[in-house]
């Protein structure tokens, strides 16, 4: 059996983490087993399920600069105690340099860096992240990406393998009964519902989303905004909503385990991100039959339905609002079963890509 050590920040419900779980549930676990090295001290949403599927979860020190000596000491000991890991697959973009460097020092032969983004969060580690980005190919010796732009961003000039951000499609297909039930649960009747799923963070650009919704609400008062997710910007976003007197029509739903059903309650999905790889939520929303309005910073590779549109972040608020409102339609949401069965974003197809990739990389050791 191949045991793969997946390196992540944590395994809470978010796009990357959910994508990993989609693959984990669907791979042939008699041949390939995932274990997870997290960089948070606390238990995450998916930890129990990982254990139930035969995986292990390890908790390394957080990747703060002041922790680096302790981190490398931990990792040296970890790999000495776990020689079974011949493949380390890291998903923390430029920060993957650190676990993969530790793996290289420990003699781990297959060190995979996986790019999930096209830019870097501007937090206190921004300069370090830029440095690690330039060094990543010194620590990794295999490269994966969720899309062309993401791969070119983290691995300029290098060849990389495309691994689709695949989902469990059947959970997201449009179902009118689910829509009616979920809208009733949320206290919704005839409202036009704008939805967003994503971490409340700089990258997702909620500040603009709220201003767009404010403009939209002026044009049509019978509108509601659903925000699904948590994050470091939550207090700022709540303050902005309150100052714009939108408290009654913006619902903060937090982290949810029924996101697939919440898509059914929406009428349009809006994502004005500052940067993205291939957003898992964009894939999910399209399979749910939702019209989608993405910023022009979201790679066009995510689009696979005709009812998806990309709008410049330089556009006026009024233009954004008009485009979102133009998605208000009485047309039915239809599941394209032929496309669904063959799509590379369907985990029933995509898991074979990852299985083959691991098998081929391991065979290179023979």
From TrEMBL:
<feature type="domain" description="Glycosyl transferase family 1">
    <location>
        <begin position="179"/>
        <end position="311"/>
    </location>
</feature>
<protein>
    <submittedName>
        <fullName>Glycosyltransferase family 1 protein</fullName>
    </submittedName>
</protein>
<feature type="domain" description="Glycosyltransferase subfamily 4-like N-terminal">
    <location>
        <begin position="15"/>
        <end position="170"/>
    </location>
</feature>
<dbReference type="Pfam" id="PF00534">
    <property type="entry name" value="Glycos_transf_1"/>
</dbReference>
<dbReference type="InterPro" id="IPR050194">
    <property type="entry name" value="Glycosyltransferase_grp1"/>
</dbReference>
<dbReference type="InterPro" id="IPR028098">
    <property type="entry name" value="Glyco_trans_4-like_N"/>
</dbReference>
<dbReference type="Pfam" id="PF13439">
    <property type="entry name" value="Glyco_transf_4"/>
</dbReference>
<dbReference type="InterPro" id="IPR001296">
    <property type="entry name" value="Glyco_trans_1"/>
</dbReference>
């Amino acid at each position: 059996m191949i045991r793969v050590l997946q390196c992540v920040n944590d395994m809470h419900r978010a796009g990357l983490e959910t994508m990993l779980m989609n693959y984990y549930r669907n791979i042939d676990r008699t041949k390939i087993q995932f274990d997870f090295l997290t960089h948070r001290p606390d238990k995450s949403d998916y930890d129990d399920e990982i254990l139930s599927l035969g995986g292990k979860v390890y908790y390394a020190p957080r990747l703060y600069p002041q922790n680096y000596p302790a981190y490398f000491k931990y990792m040296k000991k970890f790999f000495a105690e776990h020689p079974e890991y011949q493949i380390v697959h890291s998903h923390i973009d430029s920060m993957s340099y650190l676990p993969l460097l530790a793996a290289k020092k420990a003699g781990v032969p297959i060190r995979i860096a996986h790019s999930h983004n096209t830019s870097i969060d501007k937090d206190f580690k921004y300069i370090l992240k830029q440095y690690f980005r330039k060094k990543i190919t010194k620590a990794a010796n295999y490269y994966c990406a969720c899309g062309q732009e993401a791969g070119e961003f983290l691995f300029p000039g290098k060849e990389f393998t495309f691994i689709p951000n695949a989902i469990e499609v059947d959970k997201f297909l449009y179902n009118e009964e689910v829509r009616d039930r979920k809208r009733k649960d949320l206290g919704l009747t005839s409202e036009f519902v704008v939805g967003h799923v994503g971490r409340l963070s700089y990258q997702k650009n909620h500040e603009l989303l709220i201003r767009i919704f404010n403009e939209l609400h002026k044009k049509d008062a019978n509108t509601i905004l659903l925000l699904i997710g948590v994050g470091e910007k939550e207090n700022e976003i709540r303050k902005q909503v309150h100052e714009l007197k939108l408290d009654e029509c913006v619902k903060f739903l937090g982290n949810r385990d029924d996101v697939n059903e919440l898509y059914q309650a929406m009428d349009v999905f809006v994502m004005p991100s500052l940067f993205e790889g291939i957003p898992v939520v964009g894939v999910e929303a399209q399979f749910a039959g939702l019209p989608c309005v993405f910023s022009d910073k979201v790679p066009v590779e995510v689009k696979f339905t005709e009812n998806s549109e990309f709008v410049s972040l330089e556009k006026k608020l009024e233009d954004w609002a008009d485009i979102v409102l133009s998605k208000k339609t009485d047309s039915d949401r239809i599941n394209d079963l032929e496309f669904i069965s063959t799509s590379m974003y369907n985990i029933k197809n995509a898991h074979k890509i990852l299985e083959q990739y691991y098998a081929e990389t391991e065979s290179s050791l023979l």
